[in-house]
Amino acid sequence: MNTPPEGRDLGAPLEPVSAHPPAPTRSGRRRLGLGTLFFGFVGPLLCFLVGGVLVRELFERWFAPMFVSAVVAVIALAVQLARPRLSPERSMFLTGVLATSAAFALIVGLLLLPFSLMGLVVGIGVLGLVPLGTAWVLGRAALEAVKRADSLAAATVSAWMLAGASFALFAPAVPVVLEARAYGAAFEELGAARPDAVERASAALPHMPWISPFPLRNELELEGDEARLERLKQLLRVRFHQEWQEFVD
């Protein structure tokens, strides 16, 4: 038989045991805050500024969609942190955005992992591990946002989360669509028998981050007409300052 602790008043009520875990201490909140700040904001910025050239070389045409996805994720995370009292509907939309962005970040982190491990020798590989930390931060933010769904029906929660996920999925497709339209206009200009066809085609490709030379190089690989092949080479040289021979050798 257990005896009460010495000095314990047997008639005093027992202290209730909380079903919730204790709140994080100040040092714990500081660690969480620093982790969120770095992996949610500073780290992605460093990845694109410092490792942007390497990332563009690795992912080529998908660099712009990755950039848009990162911007969407950072904005969603900022809203989640700055507006903790959003309506349940908006919180569910935000949950969909954050969860989808976390999945994107996890996929990118796993794809970069082999290069990150090799790059650890020279130090820059640390940046390749940032997407994994970003996925963790975004996933945790999504779990925080979904807690505001108590007053909503299950169908409403699913609809708003699906809307948020759809937004996070289709927003990165915008630069792909813009690039396809720009190349369609450029190739149409090249098809015209004009002396300035190459210059007009180059003007159809605006100097925007989402315009990649990949579709042009792909067109060069498939082209069989010698005259058009030469114009494509000139376009690659004029617009992107690249020589086709660099990719053939």
List keywords for this structure.
single chain; 249 residues; mainly alpha; 2 domains; 12 helices
Write the layout of secondary structure elements.
Layout: H1 26-50, H2 52-59, H3 63-82, H4 88-119, H5 125-128, H6 130-146, H7 154-170, H8 173-191, H9 197-203, H10 214-222, H11 226-240, H12 245-248
Helix pairs in contact: 1-3, 1-6, 3-4, 4-6, 4-7, 8-9, 9-11, 10-11
Descriptive overview:
The chain is mainly alpha-helical and 249 residues long. The protein has two domains: 35-171, no CATH class; 175-248, no CATH class. Helices cover 71% and strands 0% of the residues. The protein is built from twelve helices and no strands. It has helices at residues 26-50, 52-59, 63-82, 88-119, 125-128, 130-146, 154-170, 173-191, 197-203, 214-222, 226-240, 245-248. The chain is elongated and about 65 Å long. The chain starts with 25 loop residues before the first helix and ends with a helix. Mean pLDDT is 83; it is low at 14-24 and 27-31.
